[in-house]
Amino acid sequence: MTGLNPPNDADARRSVPPVICYPTETLPEPDMAMYARFRERLATLDQATSAPREAAAIRVPAGHFLRIKSVEGPQVGDLNLFNANNLNERFYSGKTRALHGTHITTGERMWSSFPYLRPMATVTDDTLGWYGMDTFGGSVHDVIGTRCDPYTGNLLSGTLYHHCCHSNLTRALAESEGLSLTEAEALVHDVLNVFMCTGFTRDTGQYFMKASPVRPGDYLELFAEIDLLAVLSACPGGDCSTTHSSDVAKCYPLEMEVLKPVTTDGWTPPPVNGYDGTHGT
After folding, report:
1. Please, are residues 220 and 68 in contact by the beta-carbon 8 Å criterion?
2. CB atoms within 10 A of CB 21
3. Residue 166: pLDDT above 90?
4. CB neighbourhood size of 87 (10 A)
5. pLDDT of amino acid 2
6. Distances in Å between the alpha carbon of 250 and those of 68, 236, 237, 243?
7. Which residues pair with 91 in a beta bridge?
8. What's the average model confidence in pLDDT over 237-259?
9. Tell me: the pLDDT tens digits for 263-280?
10. I want to staple 57 with a disulfide (CB 3.0 to 4.6 A). Which of 15, 118, 176, 188 is the partner?
11. Full-model pTM
């Protein structure tokens, strides 16, 4: 196999320094002091609970906060975000990853799909922000995993498991929006893996998971930059320390709480992306 025979300048080729694909120096910085002012006085507007191995949906008006909380035990969740008024605009995990890296935390944003490409939500608080990056290359709240799904399970093991996150999100979206399963499934997209601790192995580059550090009382808080529909699955992997896409792991519920600030003075929703859409024609 010729691919295993290195050229004479192999070391020189490997030593070429990397270049950041998307430098973010010109990316508008979120005004965290403004969000902190909004957070000073919050009132609960709505709540929803994702039961173990199930998903729930909730609407978050623009200018409100969504707090995703661990309430009983270590549990990870798979989050889809939609523009509540246009389900075609939805979370774009790949572009979020390209702009912010493999995991997101306070001060970073969840970006929407083309042709809109604007901030959907800003992370305003993260009680697991202390975790950082561990010695294995693992961190929390990833935008690299796609969501556990029945198709991959069937491909790898020949199983038909119906309570993986993809299926949970499909059922919850269909029920919330009055869609058929076929219509809903076409809209379900790659997720923010809330509380999940993941990374890539150094030797093989494989996606790994390990026990989440989340505990009851921990939360991830988002500020809704536009009207949002949030759909959250309580992953069948529980804390994802051993397995997922099965009924083996111990699982717990996750709570979503919509919080209304007293004021949002000084904030305006972001416009859709300014590209003219002509694509060179």
Report:
1. yes
2. 7
3. yes
4. 16
5. 66
6. 19, 8, 8, 10
7. 112
8. 93
9. 999 999 999 999 999 999
10. 176
11. 0.96
Given this model, what pLDDT does residue 232 score?
Answer: 98
Within the chain, what is the greatest distance between any pair of CA atoms? 66
Q: Which residues are CB-contacts of 242 (< 8 A; sequence separation ≥ 6)?
A: 248, 249
- DSSP secondary-structure letter at 29? P
Select from 230, 197, 238, 194 the least CA-distant residue to 90: 230
Query: Are the beta carbons of 113 and 273 closer than 8 angstroms?
Result: no
DSSP helix/strand/coil, 154: helix
161: CB partners within 8 A, 6+ apart: 150, 153, 236, 245, 246
User: Measuring CA to CA, how many Å separate 169 from each of 3, 39, 162, 208, 236?
Assistant: 42, 29, 11, 22, 12
| Rounded Cα distance, 123 and 62, in Å | 14
Residue 194 has pLDDT above 80, yes or no: yes
Place of tokens 């709570």: 255
Q: Across 138-241, where does the E strand assignment appear?
A: 139-142, 192-200, 207-210, 219-224, 228-234
Q: CA nearest 93: which of 107, 78, 106?
A: 78
**Distance (Å, whole) CA 53 – CA 238:** 9
The predicted structure's pLDDT at residue 1? 60
